[in-house]
Input
Amino acid sequence: MDFDDFYREHYSLVRRAMLLTFRDPSLADDVTQEAFYKALRRWTKVSQLDRPDAWTMVVALNDGRDSARRRRRHEAKARLLSPRGTTGSAEQDVADRMFVAELLESVTDRQREVLVLRYMTQMTVPEIARVLHCAEGTVKSTLHSALQKASQLAKGPEYVDD
Output
């Protein structure tokens, strides 16, 4: 079977499975397309498998799990650092803004820069590294330290390490 026939025969099944698994049409499309792209890149080996469709399904599931996990982590971190907006009460909005201000005052200048660039301007780690003229690993470790500080602040003053 050539790849075009394989694609026509199995694409809709894999996409439906991803849609049912992740309940997100955009994510289902992305991981299905990525899985078939990976299958195409490795078609000489994948086509020799007993079930290339199963291999493609596993690749799509793994990519979907990774994407969903990254999204959940990002959303959890973003909730720590950004005010709720108009969905909460006015008092909660003020408390959220005060928390963010307190957090930004409690971290180092570099941590503050990284937090603002990552969560307020939505820059990626490589983009932040280019802007700050440092290694991506430095950005990641700085971001991690700042988020630990945010987590400690959210738990209360008895958890803050000075």
